[in-house]
């Protein structure tokens, strides 16, 4: 399982600052796996689903992405580094992208972060109300 072309044991990390807002462009390119994607302990504001603006920009703990689905979300980096995790539904394994907050190099995942995400309440693309029909 890859995130930005890297396996979870050798992830590509990104630097950030505490309080900085970051837009995540999440795409499930898998052929047979749905992924629960989130940042443990950080809420995400879903702004777009499958390329269309979300009519209700909900804050969620995690999203469930089916094959080929896309979601844009915004997170605010807390005072410590955090991992963006994609946990395979019904399978072992995950992908991660650590986001460091300043000089704080925390943010790589551990088993408790993966378990926390598995238990998080999720939103799906179907949870976003459809846009009104054009006339």
Automatic annotation (TrEMBL):
Residues 9-78 form the Plastocyanin-like domain. It comes from the Bacteria. This is Plastocyanin-like domain-containing protein. It comes from Amycolatopsis taiwanensis. It holds the Pfam family Cu-oxidase. InterPro entries: Cu-oxidase_2nd, Cupredoxin. Transmembrane segments: none annotated. SUPFAM superfamilies: Cupredoxins (SSF49503).
């Amino acid at each position: 399982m890859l995130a930005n072309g890297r396996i979870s044991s050798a992830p590509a990390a990104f630097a950030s600052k505490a309080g900085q807002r970051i837009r995540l462009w999440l795409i499930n390119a898998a052929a047979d796996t749905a992924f629960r994607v989130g940042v443990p302990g950080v809420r995400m504001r879903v702004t777009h689903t499958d390329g269309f603006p979300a009519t209700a920009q909900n804050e969620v703990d995690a999203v469930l992405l089916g094959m080929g689905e896309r979601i844009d979300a915004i997170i605010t980096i807390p005072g410590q580094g955090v991992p963006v995790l994609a946990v395979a539904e019904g399978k072992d394994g995950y992908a991660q992208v650590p986001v460091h907050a300043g000089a704080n190099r925390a943010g790589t995942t551990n088993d408790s972060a993966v378990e926390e995400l598995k238990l998080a309440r999720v939103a799906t693309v179907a949870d976003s109300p459809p846009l009104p029909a054009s006339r």
